Amino acid sequence: MKVDFLLIGAAKSATTSLCNALTQHPDICFSEPKEPQFFSESNWRDKLDSYHSLFKKNTKLYGEGSTNYSKHPHYNKNIHNDIYEYNPEMKIIYIMRNPVDRIISYYTHTYNRGHETIENINNAVLNNIHYIDTGKYAMQIKPYQELFGEENVLLLFFEDFIKSYQQVLDSIFEFLDIDAIEVDEKYLNANKSFDKRVLHHKYDNPKTIFEKVKKVLLILKNYTYSPKFIDKKPILTRETKQYIINHVSKDINEIEIMTGRDLSHWLKIKS
Predict the structure, then answer these.
(1) Longest Cα pair distance anywhere in the chain, in angstroms?
(2) What tens digit of pLDDT does each residue of 174-191 get?
(3) If residue 144 lies in a helix (H) or strand (E), which one and from where to where?
(4) Which regions of the chain does DSSP assign to beta strands (E)?
């Protein structure tokens, strides 16, 4: 088998909801977990059998949704070529969101998952270029277009998905060359940043009996609240918002050219 398509991000742009919706199609099998981050490691060639074992049924198309594939250059710096080596006919799906809104959601999620330790969102954004790089959508997607061809890279927008998720799903079904199906909204998992069921990343693959038992207890408890858990939208200052816009504006203009979409509202500071 070969994996046929990747939903590569952008992180916190409804990628989880898209994955959940696509798993309802009888011709699609998603990996378990849906974000294996397989190609983020340079030694992926040695683990292909393990990767393929994540796909649990025989079907027409196999896909996965690792958002780390669009966080260049912070993981495997050769990731685009590596994916091309694995499958030069791979189809790529990429969904984009207002960069300021996405960063707020992304920070909240990474903090609550334990990947971010800086408690002030403004300090975190200003001191970690990772937040800016993942919001440079053209920088992330152009290498995929150059390798796989623009016809094999589908660009989507978060706003469209929120407004009419079925229309966006239909465009994906057409892109993957499979029959369109109606997807019940109940299958869409918003994966909200403030969801107290978010587990710390150390429980993703618990190693000790203690950690395994604690993970079960946390799941049964149905939330992982702690005094430092962010349960409301953190506030970016006007200066930090301007900092973000200044760094992504040229990139957003490139996306406008790629898609023919007016994204000028992304470059305006909202109160």
Answers:
(1) 54
(2) 999 999 999 999 888 655
(3) helix 137-148
(4) 5-7, 28-30, 61-64, 91-96, 153-157
Radius of gyration of the chain measured on its C-alpha atoms: 19
Domains and CATH numbers, the chain: 5-194+233-267 (3.40.50.300), 195-229 (no CATH)
Is the previous residue joined to 33 through a cis bond, with omega within 30 degrees of 0? yes
State the DSSP code for 267. Answer: G
User: What is the Cα–Cα distance from 116 to 57, expressed in whole angstroms?
Assistant: 36
Q: In angstroms, rounded to a whole number, what is the distance separating the alpha carbons of residues 42 and 59?
A: 28
CA distance 6 to 115: 24
* Residue of 7, 10, 67 whose CA lies nearest to 40: 67
pLDDT in tens, 69-106: 999 998 899 999 999 999 999 999 999 999 999 999 99
CA–CA gap between residue 87 and residue 83 (Å, rounded): 6
DSSP string, 34-49: S---GGGSTTGGGGHH
Nearest to 106 by CA among 158, 171, 144: 158
This prediction's pTM: 0.89
Alpha carbon distance 10, 61 (integer Å): 22
In sequence order, the 6+-apart residues with CB closer than 8 A to the CB of 245 are: 99, 100, 267, 269
